[in-house]
Amino acid sequence: MPDRPRLSTRCVHAGARRGPAELGLNTPIVTSTAYDYTDGEGVRYPRYLNTPNHGVVADRIASLESAEAALVTASGLGAISALLFGLLEPGDHVIVLDGVYGGTSDLVDGLLQPWGLRHSTWDGRRESLAGLIEDRTRLAWVESPTNPLLKVVDLKATASILKDHDVLAAIDNTFATPVLQRPLEFGFDLVMHSATKYLGGHSDLLCGALAGSAELIDRIRPAAIRLGSSLNGQDLALLDRSLKTLALRVERQSANALRLAERLSSHDGIEAVHYPGLDESPDHDLAKRQMDAYGGMMAFRLDADRHPGRFLAALSLVAPAVSLGGVETTICQPSRTSHARVSSRVRERLGIDDRLMRLSVGIEDSDDLYTDLARAVEASTGKAST
């Protein structure tokens, strides 16, 4: 390969390890859980995250994120847990962006806070970040774009402020993917993916990933091992397969989402559309500077005279479902799925109610998707219950 192939080429080739010619072009799937420890290669074991298939996928993800190293875990939350337990100690302080994924909030509130981790909530404004930093602040955790309201954080400014105070900058890059945004290039230290979503891309895998410097990944690895957050060879091979089409899928999904956002924003039955690709979005200029496109995720709120249950029941092509990032378009209410375990007080403050719909746009024809959504909006008249 050239010294630095373009990203779409790296999606296909980075990290690949071919076997003998008779095995073909794909990296062989190694399913063994038992390895010879006397061959001079050290102790190899799937739970240690050092099998051949793990190495291929980790190297590819590291390449895509412009990182030195990466780890692949059994879920996105497994990756977040390994990062926090691997880098923090009881009594440490973390800054968490307001409105992050509900599973992250639940992890911090339900497990790490009782364990002794302290945290502050950041409103996302660069001018307020430095004031949250304490003597024992070790890490700041952000998302951009955020789940589910698609707010965008100034990555370069955020990383610069944190670096000035010797605080690690970590980001959930699930929504953007490395195809559209590479936070390490803006100064972030660590990137996390719920690889279940776009990296897997076919709604048939549960996995996560971390990427960063070799030093930080080495510090996190023992926690990932202790947590048992490992992936088997067959699932790693499926993830390897999926990464090859990542650029194609995300580019199509992003183009579809922009067209849908533009059309839905003028629909009489929709109160608001949240998508950074819209000119009227307050984060549009920032997203334009730091993203290559605006992503396949969007959210919209039905008008008060529309019933969310009737809207969802009227859909025929778009499927109500948990998760996101697949080739098929899915929709959900964050109030009942991703943010169901967030307190009702916080949901109300964030504007996450039953009328808010999170749409994961797939690779179908955008006209077909719009027709399905518009028909469902028309069929949803009737006072909403919430």
Features:
7-stranded mixed sheet; 386 residues; 37% helix; 15% strand
Describe this structure in words.
- This protein is of the alpha/beta class and 386 residues long.
- It is built from 14 helices and twelve strands.
- The strands form two sheets. A seven-stranded mixed β-sheet has the order 1-7-6-5-4-2-3, with helices on both faces.
- The model has no long low-confidence stretch (mean pLDDT 94).
The class by helix and strand makeup works out as alpha/beta
Give Rg in angstroms. Answer: 21 Å
- SSE pattern: HHEHEHEHEHEHEEHHHEHEHEEHEH
Report the β-strand fraction as a percent range.
5-15%
Terminal Cα span: 56 Å
Overall pLDDT, averaged? 94
Give the overall shape: globular
Helix content: 25-40%
Largest sheet composition = 7 strands, mixed
Number of separate strands: 12
Query: Strand order within the widest sheet?
Result: 1-7-6-5-4-2-3
Low-confidence stretches are none
Number of helices: 14
